Amino acid sequence: METTAKTNFIYELIDKDNASGRFEGRVHTRFPPEPNGYLHIGHATSIILNSGIARAYKGKFNLRFDDTNPSKEEQEYVDSIVEDVKWLGGDFEDRLFFASDYFPQMYDWAMQLVKAGKAYVCDLTADEVRAHRGAPGEPGKDSPFRGRSVEENADLFERMRKGEFPDGSRTLRAKIDMAHPNLNMRDPVMYRILHAEHHRQGDKWCIYPMYDWAHGLEDSIEKITHSICTLEFEDHRPLYDWFLDQLGIYHPQQIEFARRTLGNTITSKRKLLELVKDGHVEGWDDPRMPTVSGYRRRGYTAASLRAFCDEVGISRVPGVSDIWVLENSLRNELNKTSPRRLAVLKPVKVVLTNYPEGQTEEMDLLNNPEDEAAGTRKVPFCRELYIEADDFKEVPPKKFFRMTPGQEVRLRAAYIVKCESVVKDAAGNVTEVRCTYDPATRGGDAPDGRKIKGTIHWVSAKHAVPAKVRLYDALFTARSPEAVPEGHDYKENLNQASLEVLERAMLEPSLAAAAPGSRYQFERLGYFFADPKDSKPGAPVFNRTVTLKDTWAKIEQKGAPGQPA
Ligand code: ATP
Ligand code: MG
User: Fold this and answer.
1) Beta strands, E only, 491-540
2) In whole angstroms, what is the distance from residue 244 CA to residue 239 CA?
3) Which of 195, 153, 201 is nearest to 173 (CA)?
4) What residue ranges define each of the domains in the chain, with the CATH number in brackets?
5) Given a cut of 90, is residue 73 above it in pLDDT?
6) Residue 140: which of 189, 190, 185 has the closest Cα?
7) Separation of 463 CA from ligand 1 center, angstroms?
8) Catalytic residue among 72, 141, 259, 491
9) Residue 324 C-alpha to ligand 1 middle, in angstroms?
10) Does residue 306 have an active-site annotation?
11) For the chain, give me the number of helices (H) and strands (E)?
12) 4, 46, 68: which to mutate for ligand 1, most atoms within 8 A of CB?
């Protein structure tokens, strides 16, 4: 497996620590998701970054569930996250941890701070705590409970844990400084009371640690060296350091980087959940979703996501990456690895009037021009064929080199044919195109050297395998779907045409046996993936992973509510 290139500022910081011997040359990172949703492309960045660093330094990488908030967490999310991290190449070996397993140790450490006079039980409500907090440049007010004795605090905190008090009635707070210039340092809450069922701990606990208190302890327990997180935690770093210093325990280094944001995409678990619940998509793994499971089901490879992360890199400056960069890294890979096949998505029938009835020829087609070892295959050819409806125009626009009356066109690796007439139904739709073929051009080349500008793909009507094919477009029309003005909702930016289902595409016969989860290039149409859930040998269902060429110019011109076109 390839490693993430050593190109970002985090590597420099780690090199410095290694040079000074700060962590005895160890490098140990972690990915700490909250199990309250499926992972998205932002999380993928973090997994690829953290596991890539561990791999580059021959260090270790942990997967740790930050399951400190019982109300929104579910086993389904835990399972999906484990699968996604493994799929992305995040090798945590046997180091799969749950923060909730550290609750007893965290409680003991909290009691240690209580006994040292550095934490107190506060009876203010959440609103009162907020009101006492002050504002930037304006000091907060001490809680009236700040002066409680160590004995009273120890007694009350223990009784909080035993469940003697109702939800929200008390908190445990660090005793730091209510006038501190950094608001995070103004006596932050460490524990709240919450009588809730925890997905692993059941009702063992009714006090739950806050993120700022818990996170550094989790890192410390696991002997993490570099705790990498997103920029919004920069102002929390002094608190991360304060807790560890007060306890005098092993102290990792927190490092922040800018969140990954992708154009025409949202990366908020809350909003992704809303799209699932409200039926805007078919589930967390809908191939239009920016979730890891969505990308996987669409046919993306883990290697292409890693290549994308390497290409875009990480930094401390927030920015929006373009989807076409991701798509290009995917095309680069699929171009080299995908077998080519013939498929017609929107079929129109062609009859070769001078071709013998009942005759079948086997045409030789290259499996992959990028890979000689892939060899060739036989594709049957007959008097009746399907071609792509778009490849025929009765009245052609300028420079139309495909099939149109009176013009010769090449059928890929077969013959040169010429359209002589069309058959229409009562409504005037073309139901059949009648052509003649030139028997001297088998393989597709004219012996007299005459130039044929257009080449189109085909399948034999008699041998074709009908299939369902799903085409996708961006889920959102706006580049920054969440940036909507007052009174608007990000869902107004949903692309109403993000899914097109073709119920009766026609495939070359070899695709009848396509294994679910296999990838192909359908010539001239893009890269396609046999859906791992819906596709069955004999009844294939294909998702288009990506088109052959970049189509983003078209999409970005579409306007969106409250956004310029
Ligand atoms: P969301 O806002 O979608 O709920 P989160 O940050 O609350 O995301 P966590 O489960 O806490 O979700 O995230 C786990 C890890 O993934 C954290 O270390 C977080 O910093 C990182 N992460 C989350 N979103 C992104 C992103 N867009 N880019 C990079 N890293 C991210
Ligand atoms: Mg979070």
Assistant:
1) 499-507, 519-522, 526-530
2) 9
3) 153
4) 9-257 (3.40.50.620), 269-339+467-554 (2.40.240.10), 343-457 (2.40.240.10)
5) no
6) 185
7) 50
8) 259
9) 23
10) no
11) 13, 27
12) 46
The tokens describing 512, both together, are 């009848």
How far is ligand 1, taken at its centre, from the CA of residue 197, in Å? 24
Q: pLDDT tens-digit profile of 75-95? A: 999 999 999 999 999 999 999
Q: Is the CB of 34 under 6 A from ligand 1?
A: yes
Percent of the chain with pLDDT over 90: 93
The two three-digit tokens of residue 146, written as one number: 């700040």
CB distance 209 to ligand 1 below 6 Å? no
- What is residue 16's predicted lDDT score, i.e. its pLDDT? 97
Query: Which residue's entry shows tokens 């007010």?
Result: 141
Closest protein CA for atom 2 of ligand 1: 268
The pLDDT value recorded for residue 72 is 77
* Ligand 1 atom nearest residue 267's Cα: 3
pTM for the whole structure:
0.93
Distance CA 258, CA 234 (A): 10
Q: Which two tokens stand for residue 504?
A: 């009766």
* Higher-confidence position of 109 and 312: 109
Catalytic residue among 6, 26, 34, 491: 34
For 352, residues 6+ apart whose C-beta sits below 8 A from its C-beta are 383, 384, 385, 415, 417, 435, 436, 437
The answer to whether 34 is a known catalytic residue is yes
3-state SS, one letter per residue, for 122-147: ECCCHHHHHHHCCECCECCCCCCCCC
Ligand 1 within 6 A of 60 CB?
Answer: no
pLDDT tens-place string over residues 258-291: 998 999 999 999 999 999 999 999 999 999 999 9
pLDDT, tens only, 12-67: 999 999 999 999 999 999 999 999 999 999 999 999 999 999 999 999 999 999 99
**Per-residue pLDDT tens for 148-175?**
999 999 999 999 999 999 999 999 999 9
Is 146 among the residues known to form the active site?
no
